[in-house]
Write a structure and sequence with these properties.
The chain has 399 residues and is α/β, with parallel strands linked by helices. It has 16 helices and 17 strands. The protein folds into two domains: 97 residues, Roll (Urease, subunit C, domain 1); 295 residues, Alpha-Beta Barrel (TIM Barrel). It binds zinc ion.
């Protein structure tokens, strides 16, 4: 039992800053009030508490090849099965891959992240390696698996279905590379089997404009529209949505993860954040491939906020950006009637409020603006402690 006293807390879905004390016991937030002083007392003067981050899209599997192939095109780099990334990874030992993935998860913890949604390649074995790497860390990987058979045009429907079911027994959903690499038949099997089991069917869509254009020419529909028709729940990128796409995403309440630094690193443009906010689509942000970016969401948020202001030449509220890394995922999951049980149970309770799971971090308050404090000021060694349910980990001294 611990009470952090006299700290600024970003409370509720609206991240309202309040100065108060917070009592945490057995992984739960028991009370937020000026009166509470129970158990171990932690003086929070000069600090703030933020919900821990949800990284909406990662590929931690490529942690071992950081900055490899910089300057190559996206197809040359990551397109399965023969992209540079896949060839490089096939030459690495399992132990090296586990070690580098574990280091990336430690980087996440040190920078305030307790949850991440990972596109895990390499079939069942890939899933097992990630679970091994995460063992005993205060971080929750939400694993979306994938098998090489999805890219094999010779594979039968039965074979694909069998492998999909087998993967889903071991992970939280399926993350597909994209419509250029998998057939609509594979997509149908994947979404059917995921939706049957309340797992997350997900796919990269509309990452660059040619993909959207080619899809329209060939199928009469954009990639985003196709992904919605095929009943995917989580769409990654959507960097080039049409207005109709945005309406469809909004009406169907799909989860979308934008990856601004990844789009920047690959010369692919800037996601139209403002349109997502105007349409009240609760987008998440993700750091994407670790070969391209560190999994530090504070870096992602600062890039996002400033690129957005530069791009639109107008004020953008930093709170909207912080929500993309924290409460947006929980709010969307909460709103989805048909919401994914795994996703819901893993992340929904992390909003700061009495009775909720304690999933938050305590950091120095360097600026008077708590949102910009997180986005502009906090460095790794300013985070004092991170809490993920029953795990309470001190990271740095307050002084
Ligand atoms: Zn990706």
């Amino acid at each position: 039992m611990r009470t952090i006293v006299n700290t600024i807390i970003l409370k509720g879905y609206d991240l309202t800053p309040i100065k108060s004390n917070i009592l945490i016991d057995d992984g739960k937030i028991i009370e937020i009030s000026d009166e509470v002083f129970e158990g171990e007392i932690i003086d929070g003067t000069g600090t703030m508490i933020c919900p821990s981050f949800l990284n909406g899209h990662t590929h931690v599997g490529d942690s071992i090849i950081k900055d490899y192939g910089d300057g190559r095109s996206i197809e040359e780099l990551v397109k399965p099965p023969d992209g540079l990334k896949h060839l490089a990874l096939s030459n690495c030992d399992d132990d090296e891959i586990i070690f580098s993935m574990r280091n990336s998860m430690l980087d996440m913890i040190k920078t305030g992240t307790t949850h991440f949604i990972d596109y895990r390649e390499g079939g069942l074995k890939g899933i097992k390696l990630l679970k091994k790497a995460a063992d005993n860390l205060p971080v929750n990987p939400i694993i979306l698996g994938r098998d090489p058979i999805f890219h094999n045009s010779q594979a039968t429907e039965d074979e694909i279905r069998k492998i999909t079911v087998k993967l889903l027994k071991n992970c939280d959903g399926i993350g597909l590379s994209g419509f250029s690499e998998v057939s609509d038949e594979v997509c149908k099997i994947v979404t059917e089997e995921c939706n049957k089991r309340n797992k997350i069917p997900s796919i990269h869509v509309g990452e660059y404009s040619e993909l959207q254009k080619n899809s329209l020419e060939e199928f009469g529909k954009t990639e985003i529209e196709r992904s919605i028709n095929l009943n995917f729940k989580l769409l990654i990128h959507s960097t080039y949505p049409t207005d109709d796409d945005l309406n469809l995403i909004s009406e169907n309440r799909k989860l979308v993860t934008l990856c601004p630094r990844s789009n920047g690193a690959l010369n692919l443009g800037i996601p139209p954040f403002k349109k997502f906010i105007t349409k009240k689509i609760n987008a998440l942000i993700g750091t994407d491939n670790i070969m391209l970016n560190s999994p530090n969401l504070m870096r992602e948020m600062e890039y996002t906020l400033k690129v957005m202001r530069a791009y639109y030449k107008e004020y953008v509220d930093p709170k909207e950006i912080l929500k993309m890394a924290t409460v947006n995922g929980y709010e969307t999951a909460d709103n989805l009637n048909e919401c994914n049980l795994n996703f819901y149970s893993t992340v929904n309770k992390t909003v700061i409020g009495e009775g909720n799971d304690a999933q938050l971090f305590l950091t120095k308050l360097i600026s008077k603006n708590p949102y910009l404090n997180i986005i502009n000021r906090v460095e790794t060694n300013d985070i004092i402690a991170i809490v993920n349910k029953d795990k309470f980990l001190y990271l740095n001294d307050k002084k």
